Amino acid sequence: MSIPLIINAVGRAVPSEINGQAAIPFKGVGKHRPEGKKHAPSISTCSDYPDDGNKVVSSLEEALRRCGIKDGMTISTHHHLRDGDLISNMLFDIACALEVKDLVWFPSASFPCNEPIIKYLDDGTINRIEGSMNGPLGRYVSEGKMKGTAVLRSHGGRVQAIQDGEVKIDIAVLAAPSADPFGNARGTGGKSACGVLGYAKADYMYAEKVIVVTDNLIEYPCIPMEIEGNYVDYVVVVDKIGIPEKIISGTTQITKSPDRLLIAELTASFLEKSGILKDGTTLQAGAGGTSLAIAVFLHEILKKKGWKSKLGFGGSTKYMVEMLEQGQMGYILDAQAFDLDSVISIGKNANHIPYPVFNAYNYHSKGNLTSMMDIMILGATEVDLNFNGNVVTHSDGYLLHGIGGWQNCLHARNVILPIPLFRDRIPVIVDEVTTLCGPGELIDVIITERGIAINPLRTDLIESTRNSGLPLKSIKELKEEAERICGKPQKAQLEEDIVAVIKWVDGTVIDVVRKIKV
Amino acid sequence: MSIPLIINAVGRAVPSEINGQAAIPFKGVGKHRPEGKKHAPSISTCSDYPDDGNKVVSSLEEALRRCGIKDGMTISTHHHLRDGDLISNMLFDIACALEVKDLVWFPSASFPCNEPIIKYLDDGTINRIEGSMNGPLGRYVSEGKMKGTAVLRSHGGRVQAIQDGEVKIDIAVLAAPSADPFGNARGTGGKSACGVLGYAKADYMYAEKVIVVTDNLIEYPCIPMEIEGNYVDYVVVVDKIGIPEKIISGTTQITKSPDRLLIAELTASFLEKSGILKDGTTLQAGAGGTSLAIAVFLHEILKKKGWKSKLGFGGSTKYMVEMLEQGQMGYILDAQAFDLDSVISIGKNANHIPYPVFNAYNYHSKGNLTSMMDIMILGATEVDLNFNGNVVTHSDGYLLHGIGGWQNCLHARNVILPIPLFRDRIPVIVDEVTTLCGPGELIDVIITERGIAINPLRTDLIESTRNSGLPLKSIKELKEEAERICGKPQKAQLEEDIVAVIKWVDGTVIDVVRKIKV
Fold first, then answer.
1. Is B186 found in the same domain as B61?
2. CATH number of domain containing A172
3. In what helix (H) or strand (E) does residue A91 lie, and over which residues does it extend?
4. What is the value of pTM for the model shown?
5. What residue in B sits closest to A364 (Cα-Cα)?
6. Which of A127, B6, B339, B391 can bridge B252 by disulfide, Cβ–Cβ 3.0-4.6 Å?
7. How confident is the model at residue A313 (pLDDT cuts 50, 70, 90)?
8. Which residues on B lie below 8 Å from A228 (Cβ)?
9. A155 within some domain
10. Which residue range is the domain that position A192 belongs to?
């Protein structure tokens, strides 16, 4: 690659151009000042739409044709159907049949169920994916097989990129568990309910053309309107938009591992003893097995103390719903539902509310929910001695995960990473993260089964836990302990070629992912 | 005025330039095709806003200063506090004290309570009002005293103008009955509840700077978020945003006039006998005294027949709420609440839902609710032999009313105008309307106490009511009858000077208002 690299504010060499578009290197947290105006899609007129509000067309193919699908377009989808999504694959089956080439797929996330997309990356239907690449797609990218360069953004960064016009969506294809013929749609009802459709909002507001695809066409008005029909061009009815049992992710099982349970217990204990957990606290618990256990422990503490969390921010789970229903949580503000209990709760509890991603996560906005959150529980594939975090690659260099809301959530008051000291005998705490997704200055506490490391910047937390009896260690001590057990890990074997870039929440480039040496 | 006039598609002479900005003459219903992109406000960054989400500043003056208020800016307000609004006047008191000049006031409507604004039009603080001018402000404009030319738009036309960038709002000052320190706000709660805040949405989405003013600061999160805090720059707390007893308009009293009751009865009878009223019908009833009586009569028919209206579109009133609560209406979709019963209903009935003006009324959108409505009951100050309607001026030429959603609602399937044959011995049906606000092709039926005139274009309705026993007449017969009683009305005595222009729903100019000859 002949594009010049620039060393950014966290010392990573990043390209000045990505897929033919100029790129800005990361300048430091809060340092980049955006200029210019938001993206402005074309003005429509009602005279082009049916007076009776019926926008149903016969098939997705018909809708794509009417939207003028052509080579090089950017097609967006949302990920609320998670690993049960049937629409993204169907969409590219059609694009391929129509012999359209060089598309950009811009999902809010992708899942292993999207593995069939690989054949369309191979045959040139799709030039590249801009979005998370879990599992097989990530492996494909890591091996240098994708034509274009992948661009990974956080959920908030994706909204920022759409709003700012860095990514211009030509056609948004939005699966909807319920929709009316006008295109109003929601995440509840029908056989493919996913709870909320928050990640579709930026897409329908800013895309040139919008197609709603549903397997549950209901009479107008489809209320609440998570997708507003006045932004929608066509409505398509299909047999099935998703596989119900896979829409609800299997990740929402409490860990049974004794080590992970210990981490969860230590985390709850740390939050209590440090004084971070208090009456009126705001928290996001997450949906991993350890996070769920933490939610259960925190719930117990709240009950014991007679305290109430003011609000929880979702991805929601059964365990947050229990806090809400039993009176230990005031509201759940929700960007996505991870399990069936959450889907049901959104439908019936007035204080379990779909929350706009613009408001929660978009850094190019007038404030975000995340910076107001007291407790933020997050994961990582690696953390390094400077508390920098990695969530996208493993230590072997393979790109296997998306960023999700992780970067956005780093702006919370207390960012806690409960992580095992090692996974499959590979240390999680390392000298330097393989991919730097979040700068260490935003990561406050690392909690492992063998000790807790507080970021030296957080002198307040060091002070408040001094005589707590908690197993406090330096991060260096934790790293050395891991290496004593597992040995010094091998650095990933990588080529020079850049296969993916990682954007920061402000659209600048914080790091890259390089091709695996095979 | 030396600006050339152009004869538009309805034969009215309109200027090619208004307040220094090029203007497009009306081309016919659905004929103007907009070009270009939507308006794009500047990109913000969270780094300019407090991490704790607290945007409260000490006063409205402080907020206006921080927004950089200066000469020539456009300042917008909403009208949900109706004749009880205290914020608009306060705003210009401050602007005057700061010696700012030539502002454009861009309210979603103005009311008699805004009469104090006249002194700021006199002293040059305000150059012009773009918005409705009820009562004293209208009289002032009609007498040629306002420096700039008034621009009147429908509610939907206002949203269209904001979205399309015809009007660029520098600062939106949005009164909110409840708000949190982040700027999330709603129309319910507190001492100044007005029900919904739908007309503030275009303002906060597209303004460069947004100030929320509340007398009821509540803890975050203020749910539901009718104003989304991530668009808000500052929050100001004042003692009172409005006078509660005037927020709820006195217009929502059923008429006691026997003539008006007869009109209401005839209207209900016409809707029943013509077959327009049916099970599953969608309707907007309006809030005038006659309209309220019509709602009551329609409710009785629905009950009698065992029918249910699928939905009613608000401005909501007690009588729509009764239909909803008693099971004769499925939903109320609401843009504004006219009375206390409606305000309460919105707060408690899950099927009484704030409805976005973008979706209902914005013609530069991908479809509108209004074109899907079966029954649309509207008023008029004048109707002419071609069924053209006037809602802004009286026959004496004085500009005394706003357009409201009237033009937008003309797109419904059946537009019914129940109007008296004369008011204060002045005929309402005339040869030619003083000001043409809506083309006759969209107005279907005129119902007076002395007979019903169906637009000849509606051969279907003429057919379906042929043997109904209804007092059907031609509009010419109705006009002649009025003139036999009241005499031929005098034409308004007007100068050449244009004091206001009337925009159509697509931003083109449909007519002008001229200065009164005194």
1. yes
2. 3.40.1080.10
3. helix A87-97
4. 0.96
5. B45
6. B339
7. very high
8. 356, 358-359
9. no
10. 52-130+167-246
Q: How many domains in chain B? A: 2
Same domain flag for B306 and B420? yes
In this complex, do B356 and A230 lie within 8 Å of one another by their Cβ atoms?
Answer: yes
- Whether residues B241 and B278 fall in one domain: no
Asked whether residue B265 falls in the same domain as residue B174, the answer is: no
Contact between A45 and B34 using a beta-carbon 8 Å cutoff: yes
**Residue A231 Cα, gap to closest chain B Cα (Å):** 6
Q: Are residues A321 and A434 in the same domain?
A: yes
Q: Give strand ranges (E) for A52-149.
A: 56-57, 74-77, 103-107, 126-129
User: What average pLDDT is seen over chain B?
Assistant: 95
Nearest partner of B109 among B410, B415, B357, B295, judged by Cα: B357
Does residue A145 lie within any of the structural domains? no
Cα–Cα distance, B152 to B82 (Å, whole number): 17
Q: Do A363 and B43 touch (CB under 8 A)?
A: no
User: DSSP letter string over B392-447?
Assistant: SB-TT--B----TTHHHHTTSSEEEEE--SEETTEESEESS-SS--B-GGG--EEE
- Residue A421 and residue A299 share a domain: yes
In A, minimum Cα distance to B369 occurs at A53
Place of tokens 């209406």: B329
A124 and A268 housed in the same domain: no
pLDDT for A104-129, tens place per residue? 999 999 999 999 999 999 999 999 99
Question: Within 13 Å and on the Cβ side, how many CA atoms surround B99?
Answer: 0
Position B234 pLDDT exceeds 90:
yes
CA dist A498 and A17 (Å) reads 12
Contact B366 A43 (CB under 8 A): no
Residues B262 and B220 in one domain: no
| pLDDT at residue B248, rounded to an integer | 76
Asked whether residue A189 is assigned to any structural domain, the reply reads yes
